[in-house]
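Re-run with default settings, no changes from the original entry. Doing this only to confirm the output is reproducible before filing.
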Amino acid sequence: MIRYIFRYLLISAAVLIVQAALAMPDVSVHGLFGKNAVLVINGKQRMLKQGQTNPEGVTLISSGKSEAVLEVDGNRVTLGLSQHISSNFQAAKMAEVRIPRGHNGHYFVSGFINGRSIDFMVDTGASAVALNINQAKALGIDYRNGQKIQMNTAGGVTDAREVVLNKLTIGNITLYNVRCIVNIGSHPAIALLGNSFLSKVQMTENKGVLLLKKKF
């Protein structure tokens, strides 16, 4: 009797696994248009707006020029044009970046803002990512339409603009809609990776290495 019960449980577990695999839709990105994306889901073409969920349970979180962020079966994934996921998809558990300490005790790391490269200094004392006006211009950031604020610098109080970065990438960690302060002046000399980014990752320091982690 115990043997039959055990066999029944194994068969039931196998059925559940197969059902779970079958439940994962096959999704590919065929077009990106501003905040809209054209997806092919299980062979059917769907146009989704940002924040919309289709009948197959796929949600478009955001859409850019080259990729779409989707939520599929509780997993958040980023797909470029013509890329796809299916029942064999396995989400990465954790993205992480290791940053060695510089000679002056600070941590420096290269990253990308909206796909354009820039060097940062990690600054846990900065409330937000911070750029000077020349860095913002080089990155193509439309700071002129940002909210007018004032910024405390080593040289005193200066005018600044508060903007939102569409995409900020450090290593294999990418965040969207990141608050940023653009100083209308030459400070900071190097861009600051502040708490509008750092507060959204796990941060630990060990033996001169700063470890940043973010769950997908």
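The first strand starts at residue 27 and ends at 33. Confidence is low (pLDDT under 50) at residues 8-22.
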